[in-house]
Amino acid sequence: MKLLIVEDEVKTGEYLQQGLRESGFVVDWARNGLDGHHHAMIAPYDLIVLDVMLPDIDGWRILRSLRESGNDTPVLFLTARDAVEDRVKGLELGADDYLVKPFVFTELLARVRTLLRRGRAPTQIDQLEVADLVLDLPRRRATRAGTRINLSSKEFALLELLIRRQGEVLPRSLIASQVWDMNFDSDTNVIDVAIRRLRAKVDDGFEPKLIQTVRGMGYTLDVPDGR
């Protein structure tokens, strides 16, 4: 499942992103309110973890805008504002839960899972498909045209990211942060090597070729036009 974190404190954002990824979620992290609002409006998320005190546009305004636009994505406020009136305000604006900093990650994870189960369990996706490529998420298995593809854990995570973002051109920096939890170093070719190895397993001997390079921009996975 795909989560969005909107958090301007770097240490908190990194802590949340790493912990939630290790718990099996795909995680995007917006480091200011404007970017968070943009992501929430244009991309589908299963849940948003939203700070209130952001430097440009606060979490109250972001939530109000989402709800006024008809976006009903569950929102968990995560904030240092612990006054009762703040909690009431958040819930009245349409937040689904409210957790005060400092927090214990296990409690946050429990709340996240509870919100995701609330009315959403029947739609949980266990399988991702593009053409004849199939990812079995619970069993962490990949097949193409019925043939098992043996992938390492990082290769599976990379392929899952590409499929979940089908048709999007993903820059190396995003791939590095999502799959390797690292900042992209332009002097390293780790992403290119990983894509090359994954392409050899997923595309060699199969048609159509799904993993594509967009020169100067990054990589995408999609069915070529006309197929």
From TrEMBL:
Residues 2-116 form the Response regulatory domain. The modification 4-aspartylphosphate is found at D51. Keywords: DNA-binding, Phosphoprotein, Transcription, Transcription regulation, Two-component regulatory system. GO terms for molecular function: phosphorelay response regulator activity; transcription cis-regulatory region binding. SUPFAM superfamilies: C-terminal effector domain of the bipartite response regulators, CheY-like. Residues 125-223 form the OmpR/PhoB-type domain. GO terms for biological process: regulation of DNA-templated transcription. One of its GO terms (cellular component) is cytosol. It comes from the Bacteria. Pfam families: Response_reg, Trans_reg_C. The keyword Zinc-finger does not apply. Residues 125-223 bind DNA. InterPro entries: CheY-like_superfamily, CusR-like, OmpR/PhoB-type_DNA-bd, Sig_transdc_resp-reg_C-effctor, Sig_transdc_resp-reg_receiver, WalR-like, WH-like_DNA-bd_sf. PANTHER family: REGULATOR OF RPOS (PTHR48111), TRANSCRIPTIONAL REGULATORY PROTEIN CUSR-RELATED (PTHR48111:SF41). This is Heavy metal response regulator. It comes from Thiomonas bhubaneswarensis.
